[in-house]
Amino acid sequence: MLRIKRNMMEKMDKRLPVTKPIVAAALLDNRFMSLTEIDSFLENENMTRISFLSSYIREVINVNNEPEALAENAGNTSTSNVTGFAGFKVIQ
Known about the structure:
By secondary structure, this protein is mostly helical. Helices cover about 60% and strands about 5% of the residues. It has one domain (about 1-90).
C-alpha cells in the first residue's frame, strides 16, 4: 500500500501542476499558507509572496480590462478609475 501511495505522489506534479492561478488562490486562503509547494514555486520564480500577488493581480487586471473602459478613462490624469479584477475599482 505504501508503494502505491509513493508512486501516486511521484506522478502528482504531472497530474496537478502548480500554476499561477493556483498559487494566487493558495496565497489568498489562510488554510494553504503552509504549503511547501507554494514556497518552491515562488523560489523558482525568484519572487516573494507579496511581489507575486501584486504582479499577478496586475496581470489579471490588464487581461480583463476592456478597451472601452480604458478609452473612457484616458482623459483623466493622475487618478483614473478603471474597472478591474472582479469588478473592483482600481486607482492608477
